[in-house]
Design brief:
This protein has a single domain, classed as Double Stranded RNA Binding Domain. It has 2 helices and 4 strands. It has helices spanning 14-25, 71-95, and strands at 2-8, 37-45, 48-57, 60-68.
Amino acid sequence: MEIRIKTLKFDASEKLLAFVEKKVARIEKFFDSAAQVAEVSLENTKDGKKAKLKVHIPGDDLIIDRSADTFENAITECVDAMKEKLTRSKEKAYEK
């Protein structure tokens, strides 16, 4: 799976980029490698840190958007929610 990371209005550290890649790579096992591309957008806003995770799967794009006090927490919340969404999507596909 290819992981694309976009940072809006700031430069991310290597440590943050490595954390994002490590976390996002874990979702691949939840959809039998059918997910081709995962896009992560990180934004530093007045209200906190915002992360958006978009996964392209055959026939659909799944999007999760979360805000938290740190990028690490926002990414972790996005990945956890995406795991559930991918599992539901997989179950629906097998029901058909």
